[in-house]
Amino acid sequence: MSSNAAFDAFDRLAREQVRNHWEFYPTAGSRIGLHEYDGRLPDLSPGPTRRRIESLRHGLAQLSGLDVTTFTPEQMLSVRLLDLFLRRELFNLEEMRPVERNPMRQVGYLNMGGYVRRNYAPLTDRLRSATLAMTQVPDFLHALDTYLESQVGEAVLDMSIESYAGMARFYREDLAQAAADCSDSGVLTGFNEVRETAAAAIDNFVESLRDRRRAAHQDFAIGSRLYSDMLSTGEGLSVPLSQIIELGQANLQANLDRLAEAAVAIHPDRSVRETVAEISRNHPTASGLIPETREMLEDIRQSLIDFDVVSLPSEDRCQVVETPAYMRYAFAAMDSPGSLESRATESFYYVTPVEDDWPPSQQEEWLSNFNYATMRIISIHEVYPGHFTHHLHNRYGSDLPLINRVATSYAFTEGWAHYTEEMMLETEYARGERELQVTQLLEALVRNCRYLCSLGMHTDGMTVDEATRFFMDYAYMEEYPACREALRGTFDPGYLNYTLGKLMILKLREDYRRQEGSSYTLKGFHDALLSHGGPPLPLLRDVMLTEPGESPI
Question: Between the CA of residue 60 and those of 85, 409, 459, 542, what are the distances in Å?
């Protein structure tokens, strides 16, 4: 069989396996832009789950039977991506078992925001799909309640109660507001009736979680074995946890030292907290927040061109708009279309404004979070050259195989965006801007704490209270946001991936620089990195390096 024919056989298998994945998780197909999957929730009950496990094992057996000896490194990347894609899901269903142990992992299936947020079809059609999906919510939640283990960690239950209660409010308030413009009274009436029935089912599930909370235990840790397997199947990273911990501790200390140096350079006689407070006071007005953010983005974008940072494969711009009412839990967020979306291809950069009925003190506190330095760092992460630029490469760059578009890595996606914050400060764009450096380092310290608290809480007995204090001590956070960060780690141990991904990119960059010698350019490295989708970073070493070395970190 010729190499092209052999890869065609692999590609057919990969497409079949991806379709099987979307059939089991139709919400994933819908969100990536294939609207034939609209209106469906997954069936996570034991029977379909057992059949899915058998299907995954069969897919892995088929993959292992293919002859890949003639494949190029790029083709082998796709093969390894499919292998990890299947193994990751199998590990999740057999070992992590979120339906039984972690209700937080299922709340996202209930989010109907995509039906009202993106204008890929007439509103009436989108509301019909949302109505169909919401009719399945009571049965979906009944299955979750039935198969959830009797003992779930107290912290995970607390976050789940809050999240599902918030979803019920979202159904009653935000979805109602978003659908109000529907001109078809019949469609709107049906939508509203089903919406309330679904919200009531969520209320009942919340009450069940509260009942479980009364007898909950403190333990939420997944343990060292599952943690290592999570990194192996999710990120292709197989190194001792002790090495990962040492790397994180060293990066935390380096960032603390750099922050102290940068803060002293601004105000030698003030503490870091005093310097940060002064930086926070320099912010846009309420009316200037959106237009000034638009101007800021154009300035950052132009710097990518002026300083040869990374290619921009399209003239597309994201639209800077106020965050929709149903998403205002976040300061700012990037909303790009799914990589296979062909209709509603606009991207939105949401910036959350102050509310008109807030008192002046609350407005000032909110705007201080949008001080100019912080907004630049957030915009680098979310837009240029972070998530939005990554999206442009995936949409308009090289013709990627389907598996490369689907099998994305947490560490690559968030690691790239976090890496760009630090990388931009190394360019002429930020020369001499100490306030920007202080802000970037504070963001990095939050991610350092996520990294070490995730490992500590899940593999070394660290409590939520101890993690909260860790964020307060090392990321200069107040107690409430520090506690929220710690609680996130109880149900999302993978949030170490912001820093882990950044460090793997920095290691790859240094090795690539050494390999390329005098022909190395920063732009060349970034373009090569982004040309493969968002794969686990250890896999990229075999493609980008002639001598990958033993360790990706």
Answer: 10, 19, 30, 21
Query: Does 385 sit behind a cis peptide bond, omega within 30 degrees of 0 on the bond before it?
Result: yes
Specify whether the CB–CB gap between 252 and 444 falls below 8 A. Answer: no
Instruction: Please report which residue ranges of 315-401 form alpha helices under DSSP H.
Output: 360-368, 372-382, 387-396
What is the rounded CA–CA span in Å between residue 227 and residue 81? 20
Burial of 454 (0-12, 13-18, 19+ CB in 10 A): buried
The three-state secondary structure class of 345 is coil
Cα 484 from Cα 495, distance rounded (Å)? 13
Structure token digits, residue 449: 């704490």
Give me the amino acid identity at 187: V
pLDDT in tens, 323-342: 876 566 668 899 999 999 99
Torsion angle of the four alpha carbons 523, 526, 529, 532, in this order, in degrees rounded to the nearest 10 = -80
CA distances from 398 to 2, 74, 173, 261, 528 (A): 23, 12, 42, 42, 11
Virtual torsion, Cα 238, 241, 243, 246, nearest 10 deg: 150
Side-chain-facing half-sphere of 126: CA atoms under 13 Å:
20
Paired tokens of 409:
């890595």
* Residue 264 one-letter amino acid: V
Distance CA 75, CA 62 (A): 17
Residues with Cβ within 8 Å of residue 395, at least 6 apart in sequence:
314, 339, 345
Kindly give the interhelix angle for 241-266 and 434-459, rounded to the nearest 10 degrees.
150
Domain spans of the chain? 3-213, 247-444
- The predicted-structure confidence for 200-247, as pLDDT tens digits, reads as follows 999 999 999 999 999 888 899 999 999 999 999 999 999 999 999 999
User: What is the pTM (predicted TM-score) of this model?
Assistant: 0.95
Q: Are 383 and 299 in contact (CB under 8 A)?
A: no
Q: What whole-number distance in Å separates Cα of residue 99 and Cα of residue 97?
A: 6
Maximum CA pair distance of the chain? 73
CB 451, CB 496: distance < 8 Å:
yes
154-169 and 479-491 helices cross at what angle (nearest 10)? 100
Give the pLDDT score at 502: 98
Sheet containing 319-322, strands listed edge to edge, beginning at the edge strand earlier in sequence: 319-322, 348-351, 332-335
pLDDT of 1 above 60: no
Using alpha carbons, select from 425, 322, 438 the residue that is nearest to residue 380: 425
- The CA distance from 551 to 515, in Å, is 16
Phi, psi of 333 (to 5 degrees): -155, 150
Please write the tens of the pLDDT for every residue from 129-184: 999 999 999 999 999 999 998 879 999 999 999 999 999 999 999 999 999 999 99
